[in-house]
What does this fold into?
Amino acid sequence: QKEVEQDPGPLSVPEGAIVSLNCTYSNSAFQYFMWYRQYSRKGPELLMYTYSSGNKEDGRFTAQVDKSSKYISLFIRDSQPSDSATYLCAMTTGNQFYFGTGTSLTVIP
Amino acid sequence: DSGVTQTPKHLITATGQRVTLRCSPRSGDLSVYWYQQSLDQGLQFLIQYYNGEERAKGNILERFSAQQFPDLHSELNLSSLELGDSALYFCASSVGDGTNEKLFFGSGTQLSVL
It folds into this structure.
């Protein structure tokens, strides 16, 4: 079993839709959770960084962590064509980072 | 712009050759990480250096080596290249040793082995 599981998609939504991206994990020692956005053949860009269970909001993005279920989500409201990218979840315990394989998202104008 | 600089952006070489990838971390960051990303794989952790010393090692082949210099820039050396080494190679940096820290990625080096 992989440490971090992420549905690769692809996910295709119309502009303005709410997008939900999810990851599950198996290691209860993970403490910090991140979401990265990666445009094609570019470097991953840090979007959200959270610690505790609950929600964290930044503009159109909301990161949700449920440690009891070992489940994290990224919600994108009012999705835009510029949100079309691959979204990677990541988590860390100590100085070890574990990445999901990424979910490919396309927002159709 | 993350502040992490990688050169070159693209590299085309032949099997059996040796190449060097370079990374400059964000100003003040002490750790440098190297990752490999292939089309059919996610981000594969290769190695981490912290303040000049090797800190953690991942799935790095023996043909690959890295170092971090006193000015904190890092180089990843890939030798006896094979077709399967073709991939995107990313460098990332963090402020300290990585414990509960954020990773910031460079824009990557696209390596094509022909």
Q: What stands out?
A: The interface with chain B takes residues 31-32, 34, 36, 41-46, 49, 88, 90, 92, 94-97, 99-102 of chain A (CB under 8 Å). The two ends of chain A are 37 Å apart (CA to CA).
